[in-house]
Amino acid sequence: MKFFPLIWASLWRKKARTIFTLLSITIAFLLFGLLQGINAWMSAFGTGSNANRLYVVSRVSELQPLPSAYLRQVLAVPGVRKSTYIAGFTGFYQEKSNALVAFATDVKTIFNLYPEWQIAPEQLVAMSRTRAGAIVAAPLMRKFGWKIGDRIPLRTSVVKQDGSADWDFEIVGIYDVPSAPVEANRILINYAYFDEARLRERGTAWAFVVAVEDPARSAQICAAVDALFVNSAYETVTQDEKAYVQGQLRQIGDVSLMANAIVAAVLFTLLFLTGNTMMQSVRERTPELAILKTVGFSDRSVTVLVLIESILLCVLAASLGLAAAAGVFPVVAALGFGGSALPLKVVAAGLAMAVVLALASGLPPAWRAQRLLIVEALAGR
Amino acid sequence: MTAALVSLKGVVKRYIRGKQRVQVLHGIDLKIHSGEFLALMGPSGSGKTTLLNLIGGIDRADEGDLLVADERINAFTARELARWRARNVGFVFQFYNLMPLLTAEQNVELPLLMTSLSKAQRSANVKAALELVGLDDRASHKPAELSGGQQQRVAIARALVADPTLLVCDEPTGDLDREMAEQILDLLQIVNREQHKTIIMVTHDPKAAARATRQLHLDKGHLLVAESSLAA
Fold it and tell me: Nearest by CB to B113, which of A2, A374, A375?
């Protein structure tokens, strides 16, 4: 700490240059935080995959609905323990930035299919008694400040039979997924109510979720389900949960590769920017560094001072950028990308990256400072 | 006569300038006694500053032996030499060489940062050094807020704060007007007489040299005359 005033003063020797460098690094790490945050969120998406669960969707496209009547046939396939359908809508609460996804399903069965989803049993009973009821993910409850008993109006793209696209639901329960908090991001509504009230695509579902008795037989069950509907107007493709999630991610593209490529390009550019700033700063301070050595600072001490200055600049700016990313992340999440909070591992990776950047850009000027000859430097050579 | 604090024997120094090899000092033999105030004089390029730099341990001799307080400093590693400078030598330069963004007290504290002194001890030493040079009321001022003479006083406080054995001054009054120069020379004399510091001062100014207890003249890397004088 006793060296801090010296390092801090050196850092701010040229205020404008330091501020611009700081801003560049801050913006770079804001980008890093957002991209890697989304990346981490998407990676985490399939980590909780359950080998017991299968998904049945349209072979043509996941956007093509399937007849909900398929459920009975699916349930009749040997090895299938339980199944239900999922339909629903995307919409928003009050403002477009408050985007939401609602799953219309057989709520009691869905909690059976997803045992990791946690809900109070009495709330599940209340849901069965409330046709226009909704069970809301705990993070959404916190985000919007909702309480049980609140009525929430949602504007959607699904038109009701009365011509309106506004749907009202009464919150009767809250669910959470402690093992994978990113998955607790939806509203669950009763399929029966939803299907009866909507104007178009009645009697259809986006997908069926299937629980099997023996995961070792998943491949055979997938084939058996798809065989049921082959050559029909609505052929299906059935996959286990992991394959299904990965398929969904592939539709967006290789986000991880894109995110990593952008971040790598930005950090590479930043390396030269920071390196140039540090090199200029050290060059300008040559006589001052010579004085430090004159009064007894060793070559190593001067090297360490320059490196700490570089680390201070990069870590300070990176912290600001990551803090900004943490602030912006919920907004991006509301648009459908990312979880409710910037993952801590992204923050940790960002700070580690900042230290690596600082060392890489600080080493050449630090090396120059170490090799500096007092007499030559004082003579201005 | 007290024992020799600084002893040089056959000291040679060469520099390489471009493709040329220039010999600056030609086998200097010299003894400087503890408590002396020595003025090194001579024309530009005579090797005064080079000799001062060798004695202060910020440059190395190519040949010869250099002992300060019985330590053979030309045998030290770079790290040992840095540690030795911190303990034994205070430097005063013509252009003060203060850190522009640090306050007077932070500048004075610099040599103490490499010691194991506590914050309180460092503060006490800095205060005492600034009081000695009469600038304790300007402790929080930055160099740009001080006059040339005041900046040189801060530099002297920085040179003295670690209580060194030896004070090496390279043209300490070269950038000051006569009145300021006299004040600085008064201060150096006080430091020499009352603090018993050995001072080696390079100067072009005969009036400044007259304050020393001994004058030495260098020309083309050779010691010419060694004459003693009593300071006024």
Answer: A2
- Per-residue pLDDT, averaged over A337-345, amounts to 75
| φ/ψ (deg, to 5) at A24 | -60, -45
A13 CB burial (10 A radius; 0-12, 13-18, 19+): middle
Instruction: Please state the ipTM of this predicted complex.
Output: 0.89
HEC string for A296-362: CCCHHHHHHHHHHHHHHHHHHHHHHHHHHHHHHHHHHHHCCCCCCCCCHHHHHHHHHHHHHHHHHHH
How many residues are listed for chain B in this entry? Answer: 232
Any A CB within 8 A of B14 CB = no
pLDDT digits (tens, 9 = 90+) for B30-81: 999 999 999 999 998 899 999 999 999 999 999 999 999 889 998 999 999 9
CA distance B2 to B36: 10
From A125-129, A376-380, B85-89, B206-210, the region with the lowest mean pLDDT? A376-380
- Cα distance between the two ends of chain A: 32
Using a CB-CB distance cutoff of 8 angstroms, which residues of chain A are in contact with residue B18?
Answer: none
Q: Do A6 and B79 touch (CB under 8 A)?
A: no
Tokens of A249: 């991610």
Helix (H, G, I), strand (E, B) or coil at B34: coil
Report chain B residues whose CB lies below 8 A from the CB of A299.
Answer: 78-79, 82
Say yes or no: B59 contacts chain A, CB-CB below 8 A.
Answer: yes
Length of chain A, in residues: 381
Smallest CA-to-CA distance from A98 within A340, A334, A338 is with A334
Mutate to test the interface with A, among B14, B97, B108 (most CBs of A within 10 A): B97
Our CA-based measurement puts residue B31 at a distance from the nearest CA of chain A, in whole angstroms, of 23
Q: Which two tokens stand for residue A338?
A: 């990312």
Contact between residue A321 and residue A29 where contact means Cβ atoms under 8 Å apart: yes
Q: How far apart are CA B232 and CA B213, in angstroms?
A: 9
Q: What confidence tens digit (pLDDT) does each residue in A292-301 have?
A: 999 999 999 9
**Calpha distance A32→A350 (Å, rounded):** 7
Closest CA to A293 of B201, B113, B49: B113
What DSSP string runs through B174-212? TTS-HHHHHHHHHHHHHHHHHS--EEEEE-S-HHHHTTS
